[in-house]
Write a structure and sequence with these properties.
homotrimer, 280 residues, alpha/beta, UDP-N-acetylmuramoyl-L-alanine:D-glutamate ligase, nine-stranded mixed beta sheet, 11 helices
Chain lengths: 280, 280, 280
């Protein structure tokens, strides 16, 4: 699988401009739309059950983010997911806050079980919750006890591969160190910046662009997801490097979208810190 | 009608600070609110059917944007439109994604047919769909086959005038070249920047400020809409001129709001590139 | 009570990182989330009635903002408020647009009357409306006739203390001069910038961070609210001081979040302009 050809994965997004249908929370939806446009894709948001089937039909992929789910949008997610599954479109699930409420855990689990979800992207607490492993969450943040560290990396990789095997998904567990796995292989991505946790939406944006990378790289889905994860992480680093003087999180958010929208494939490959996690 | 008195049209917005009721999509709603504040107007967002009649009654105009329509907000749009029509308030319709789904096409068409809509602002695919002309759309983007070019400008002008004549609206079809028409005259506006299509919300923001310009310039609606279209286009050019170094779409979005909120009437008139489209 | 120990109030937020459940409007929700993260708290947004009880249970406080209320989110607010009241969590109410519609006035009044609201934060028109005093509002802006001036400061202080006494809340009436009071004492806060009224969301952001300050400073609620109000005002001044050249409201919004997210306790105390309003 080496080299990861991150550059090619990004180029395929930019060249094919995939239409991505997003049913996503209203907190970060603007950032998700701009992130998709930034990497060269095109977003469409629609959550009304009477609207989503038509919309998803003209798209290449679907992103489901339960960050501000409600009974109407859950129905919209189900209708969209059913249609996307029937059409063979890749579906990305972001189980925001799974584990924090019964409704979130159940909704995410049902979406994962009943439709053709191809990628799950969340923090460790959320992925544990949605996969039925015991977990607690601190709201929409990872439980500190779940954070992936060097000490827990092998365990995290084994868990991610297990979830991938059971669900048939590529699993992206993001945090200070990201773990991306399918049933056979797991990788650590050591990019990003601690500032990314100081603004809302970096996880949601990653899930959104993962939808674009999944559509454009459907034949090599693991590589596509790795490229999306690395792209967001490198963008975070580039944004952090611009911080100066009185800059705070407002500027960081702007710089992050700047970096996503000007991402160069060569820089992405040069800065991406991806390594396969080998079992002990 | 010459000179367009763009400066006066803008001044009337700034001096009267029109209250504009927006029922608009949750993707770009923050940008719409800030765009309205930027040009000197005041936004109010309300979509609950039980709330909209009171709200629209205290406003001067109404903007209906179907970008993330749902059954509840459609009911809100209808109730607000009925009241605004009864009160004689100008209504601006932005048929986001008309042609992309049956619900969007039908909703936009019904709003246009049943209430006193005074301005329609969309891309060519959307305006075709809402006016009953055959059209396809690429989601919320214009179908490339529909894009207005120099070669198709006369045809676009004739179409816009025909829609205006049939609906009694001022029609603003925006794209690389914008076409603004009433039943009698059509104009091309050659402002803007290609960067405007790389962020979400420039069309929505234009529709929002068009609501303010329509309220403040109701006696000269065509000129008011032309001023709004030129204002957004010139703001886009001013924003694009600030781009440097690592700036990307995050910075462009900031610069665009900066330019809108500091727009000078003399600069607007100096930079506006408006010409009447004369029939062959 | 002197000194106000604003620095300590801020430190308590930063050190305890309170989880704050927000049911807030979709116009400014992203700004509210980033404002909370900026001051060191953690936001969770959830408005679905089936979800809010679980979510509010894991949080420390609740912020209710009726800016884009609808029948579903009103039910969510009620369910969340009931649970938060039962758990003794501080509740902050932002009655956006109270007075502008019957639904808003009634909803805000009922939330205030029926649940354990601890802080009300609004402009004078809104606070008058929610407390049953006669009032008019100009949409979501204060009615000019209601604006707090030096001439009306004593009257405003007496009104705020009266509302506080009747409701058991700390009352924060914000405008060019802010008035913060409990039943016994009232304070004027003379911070902020006129630019804050040129962007959407500064009031909403203040209400959001007030939730965090209320959780972290529950034993000294008046001081906590004063610290939140001063923090937002000083952030506005710091942001205004960075404006230069072509900067407009887009940059100001970025600078405001920058200032909130880098607020230093010593600078906050040095710049805060708080004085007790003594009865004549």
């Amino acid at each position: 699988m080496e080299p990861f050809a991150l550059k090619n994965a990004l180029s395929r997004v930019q060249e094919t401009c995939p239409l991505v249908h997003c049913i996503t929370n209203y907190v970060t939806v603007n950032d998700c739309a701009n992130a998709l446009l930034g990497v060269g894709a095109s977003p469409i948001m629609s959550d009304e059950p009477l609207d989503v089937e038509d919309i998803t039909s003209i798209c290449g992929g679907l992103v489901l983010n339960i960050g501000t789910l409600n009974v109407a949008t859950i129905a919209g997610m189900r209708a969209a997911a059913a249609r996307a599954t029937a059409l063979g479109h890749p579906i990305v699930l972001d189980p925001v806050g799974a584990g924090a409420s019964a409704l979130r855990t159940e909704t995410a689990s049902e979406l994962l079980d009943e439709y053709g979800v191809r990628v799950v992207r969340g923090n460790m607490s959320e992925v544990k919750a949605v996969s039925g492993a015991s977990a607690s969450t601190r709201g929409v943040d990872v439980d500190p006890a779940d954070a992936v560290t060097d000490a827990s990396l092998l365990e995290a990789a084994a868990f991610a591969k297990d979830v991938a095997a059971r669900t048939g998904c590529v699993v992206a567990i993001t945090g200070a160190t990201d773990v991306v796995a399918d049933a056979g292989r797991a990788f650590a991505v050591r990019n990003g910046s601690s500032l990314m946790g100081k603004i809302t939406g970096t996880g949601c944006m990653l899930s959104a662009i993962t939808g674009a990378f999944a559509v454009a790289n459907e034949e090599a889905l693991l590589e596509g997801v790795l490229a999306a994860v690395a792209c967001m992480g490198v963008a975070g680093q580039l944004a952090a490097a611009r911080m100066e003087g009185p800059d705070g999180t407002g500027s960081f958010r702007t710089y992050l979208l700047d970096a996503l929208s000007t991402m160069d494939g060569d820089i992405l490959e040069a800065k991406a810190a991806i390594e396969e996690i080998q079992e002990a």
